[in-house]
């Protein structure tokens, strides 16, 4: 199976280890076989090992090592934030974070809601079964 | 005529450095006006004889000397403070009890008693937990808070929860053969009324929050997949 996501200038990646865990960064330059120069709006441009990065589908259109302002404009143009939040990966991460921060009371309310929903589904299913049997 | 003790005595000799005053002995003599006091008293510094002490009764030698010299322990003036409350536990917090008869119950925290124990209530109508004391260590503090402003808990302290001292039966042979008197601990009506008074205000504020009453009525338990060290309470 061929690779689909390549390391290239402008590739948006997710940091999966370290201090900046969970942040989206843009690959701005490649240092050597293992490391890339990486930049984002809210961080100082720094080098990161590729092992710390998970490549995403999103790409921005930049030249090698752009100025910070140019980079931010390019990110806006490619609409990185919205694309990420609407992607299934981005949504999954958000849900995981939300679940992890749930209060004990929240968990109780969710349990009640789940039971209620299951009850409704079962009612509908019973109705459909009856119609089918008739 | 006692001198006025209103103002504290200030030194007329300011410090240049600690231990060294600005003025010499002779200058200070003049500053303090000792020459004027002497002049008023005819060239001699006035001297007051000590007041005659009232005659004290002759002390008798003690009748009893202890055989050994017993060392007296040093006086201990420490006053115990109530234990420091965890930051997550404030009045109105919902707590999860971890031990005892009511383990797993979610309960409302009212105040910390002077002994350090926490005063909690179910409320009784909601989950069967009465006004009770509980140790901070056996409790998880959740981040859910109940509005406790309508509740008056001033009358509760550790003495309220002390065991009632039973009257001691005089020793008698007849008593040994009789069956023990009923050991039923009937809760005095006064305590029941206290419970009702506290709970009335609490239940009102609990019903303002949707599903909070059902939450307090349910017990907490760990289910599959719940990792306590990762849970946010």
UniProtKB/TrEMBL annotation, chain A:
Q: Which InterPro entries match?
A: Rib_uL2_dom2 (IPR014722), Ribosomal_eL14 (IPR039660), Ribosomal_eL14_dom (IPR002784), Translation_prot_SH3-like_sf (IPR008991)
**SUPFAM superfamilies recorded for this chain?**
Translation proteins SH3-like domain
Q: Does the keyword Ribonucleoprotein apply?
A: yes
Any one GO CC term of the record: cytosolic large ribosomal subunit
Kindly state a single biological-process term from the GO annotations of this entry: translation
Q: Which domain of life is it from?
A: Eukaryota
One of its Pfam families is Ribosomal_L14e
Q: Name one GO molecular function term.
A: mRNA binding
Keywords noted in UniProt: Ribonucleoprotein, Ribosomal protein
Task: Show where the Large ribosomal subunit protein eL14 domain sits.
Answer: 45-117
> Does Iron-sulfur appear among the keywords?
no
Q: Which family does it belong to?
A: Belongs to the eukaryotic ribosomal protein eL14 family.
Recorded protein name is Large ribosomal subunit protein eL14 domain-containing protein
List the top taxonomic levels of the source: Eukaryota, Viridiplantae, Streptophyta, Embryophyta, Tracheophyta
TrEMBL record, chain B:
Q: Which residue windows are coiled coil?
A: none
A biological process (GO) of this protein is: cytoplasmic translation
Q: What is this protein called?
A: Large ribosomal subunit protein uL6 N-terminal domain-containing protein
Start-end of Basic and acidic residues biased regions: 60-72
Query: What are the record's GO terms for cellular component?
Result: cytosolic large ribosomal subunit
The segment(s) forming the Large ribosomal subunit protein uL6 N-terminal domain are: 3-61
Q: Which InterPro entries match?
A: 60S_ribosomal_eL6, Rib_uL2_dom2, Ribosomal_eL6_KOW, Ribosomal_uL6_N, Translation_prot_SH3-like_sf
Q: Write out the biased-composition intervals (Basic residues).
A: 74-84
GO molecular function terms listed in the Swiss-Prot or TrEMBL record = RNA binding; structural constituent of ribosome
Q: What's the domain of life for this entry?
A: Eukaryota
Annotated region described as Disordered, given as residue ranges: 41-86
Report the SUPFAM superfamilies cross-referenced here. Translation proteins SH3-like domain (SSF50104)
What family does this chain come from, according to its entry?
Answer: Belongs to the eukaryotic ribosomal protein eL6 family.
Per its UniProt record, what Gene3D superfamilies does this chain match?
Answer: 2.30.30.30
Pfam families the record matches: Ribosomal_L6e, Ribosomal_L6e_N
Determine if Ribonucleoprotein is one of this entry's keywords.
yes
High-level lineage: Eukaryota, Viridiplantae, Streptophyta, Embryophyta, Tracheophyta
């Amino acid at each position: 199976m061929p690779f689909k996501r390549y390391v290239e200038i402008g590739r948006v990646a997710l940091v999966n280890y370290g201090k900046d865990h969970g942040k989206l960064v843009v690959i701005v330059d490649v240092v050597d076989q293992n490391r890339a120069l990486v930049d984002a709006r809210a961080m100082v441009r720094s080098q990161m090992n590729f092992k710390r990065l998970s490549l995403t589908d999103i790409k921005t259109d930049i030249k090698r090592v752009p100025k910070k302002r140019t980079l931010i404009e390019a990110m806006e143009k490619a609409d990185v934030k919205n694309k990420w939040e609407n992607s299934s990966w981005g949504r999954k991460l958000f849900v995981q974070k939300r679940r992890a921060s749930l209060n004990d009371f929240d968990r109780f309310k969710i349990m009640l809601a789940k039971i209620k929903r299951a009850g409704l589904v079962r009612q509908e299913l019973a109705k459909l079964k009856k119609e089918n049997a008739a | 005529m006692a001198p006025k003790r209103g103002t504290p005595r200030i030194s007329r000799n300011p410090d240049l450095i600690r231990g060294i005053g600005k003025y010499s002995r002779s200058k200070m003599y003049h500053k303090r006006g000792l020459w004027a006091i002497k002049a008023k008293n005819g060239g001699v510094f006035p001297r007051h004889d000590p007041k005659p002490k009232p005659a004290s009764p002759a002390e008798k030698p003690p009748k009893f000397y202890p055989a050994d010299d017993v060392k007296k322990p040093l006086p201990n003036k420490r006053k115990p403070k109530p234990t420091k409350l965890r930051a997550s536990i404030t009045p109105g917090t919902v707590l999860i009890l971890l031990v005892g008869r009511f383990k797993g119950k979610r309960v409302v925290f009212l105040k910390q008693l002077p002994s350090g124990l926490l005063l909690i209530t179910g409320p009784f109508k909601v989950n069967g937990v009465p006004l009770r004391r509980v140790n901070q260590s056996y409790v998880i503090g959740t981040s859910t808070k109940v509005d406790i402003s309508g509740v008056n808990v001033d009358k509760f302290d550790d003495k309220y929860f002390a065991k009632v001292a039973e009257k001691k039966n005089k020793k008698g042979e007849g008593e040994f053969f009789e069956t023990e008197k009923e050991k039923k601990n009937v809760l005095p009506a006064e305590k029941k009324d206290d419970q009702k008074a506290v709970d009335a205000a609490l239940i009102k504020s609990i019903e303002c929050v949707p599903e909070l009453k059902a939450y307090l009525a349910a017990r907490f338990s760990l289910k599959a997949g719940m990792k306590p060290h990762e849970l946010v309470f």
